[in-house]
Amino acid sequence: MNITTFRAFKSRNYRLYFVGQSASLIGTWMQKTAVSWVIYTLTHSTFMLGLTLFASQFPSFLFSLIGGVVSDRYNRFRVLLTTQVASMIQATLLAVLIFANHYQVWEILSLSVLLGIINAFDVPARQSLVYEMVDDKNDLSNALALNSSMVNLSRLIGPALAGIVLETFGDGTCFLLNAVSFLAVIGSLLLMRLPKYIKKEHKKNGFGELKEGLAYIKRTPSIAFVLIMLALISLMVLPFSTLIPYYAKDVFKGTASTFGIIDSFIGLGAFSGAIFLASQKAGANLKKILFINTLVFGAGLILFSHESNYPLALIFVTIAGFGMMSQITVSNTLIQTTVAPSMRGRVISFYAMAFFGMQPLGGLLVGSISKWVGTTDTLMGEGIAALLIGCLHWRYLHREKLKAQNAALLEQPELHPA
């Protein structure tokens, strides 16, 4: 690792964002872990875990396109500030509900739906605003990789902390700490010095701009392919995380701490992968990295699925986490470094749809299949799906290489005998 790994930190606004968001994300992962544990403890149902994922993410699928238009039409800074305050209120309501000690599953699911709606507006604004936070646009890919390292470091720390807090202080404290953590990111946003927002005239209405964004994706095959692959991974592979409470409680006969530790090892793998990406030089072949890491993701899940030895299982789930990280980060980087600035919010909203929209559907699918074929075989099937999606990546890369070779041949001048 060298100084270039952190080159995006030269930008003051990005440094502020990174510090504030890091604290907030640790709280977010503590809440996610606590919600899964509470739901599984109440119901002992892997299907209900899938339904919880559906409740928290499917609203993002429904509203993310509107969120993308809002991000392109209005002041992204104000949109992001509003969503962070709304998220803090949601976390506070959840904490109050749990501390009152008179809650039911439907109440937790309802608040999860509320968070999903907030995220539909938060993600396009936040991802688009990162572009404005980085002074040197050549550092954008590094900033996005560091973003991913931040997300995954919080995934490493958050669940482990949640496991300790759940056993020591109870689930309500996890939700309260998440609510408090939003003060850090709100504070960092207020300290930023962003360029003055210039209101632009919009000749089309929101629906017209949405159609414009879809047309742009259709005529940009490289972006369309990335979105399709992310949608497939999100539907068939990423929902593996909903099954982890089963492994913690029933396979390894553990407690909330066991669940937190497994989730943290997934985060350790993902964090390692993010640092690996951040260390790549500008111009690295990200599409090839994405292809290889999709295979690594699948292999890790297959090895973990039937492993009953706890230390070995942690190694395999770390490998899966390393491969998983590329699906989100490389896809985001490929889109952000390719998309036209005027389309950024709308294209990122399609990215959010592929990521947030397919995962909850996949969560329901995985939860239902696990009831019929068993949890371990379901997880192995998800690993096999990742390998097949990796093969699609290889086919696309091969076709791109052939096109490039043919284009190079056509550009060569004809040789005439002297």
Notes on the structure:
With 418 residues, the protein is an all-alpha fold. Helix content is 81%, strand content 0%. The protein has helices at 12-43, 46-73, 76-99, 105-133, 140-168, 171-191, 206-218, 221-236, 244-251, 256-278, 286-305, 310-336, 344-373, 375-411.
Nearest-angstrom radius of gyration? Answer: 22 Å
Largest sheet: none
Mean pLDDT: 84
- Distinct helical segment count: 14
Structural class: mainly alpha
Q: What share of the residues does DSSP label as strand, in percent?
A: under 5%
What is the percent of helical residues?
Answer: over 70%
Shape: globular
Q: Catalogue the unreliable spans.
A: none
Q: Termini separation (Å)?
A: 55 Å
H and E order: HHHHHHHHHHHHHH
- Would you report the number of β strands? 0
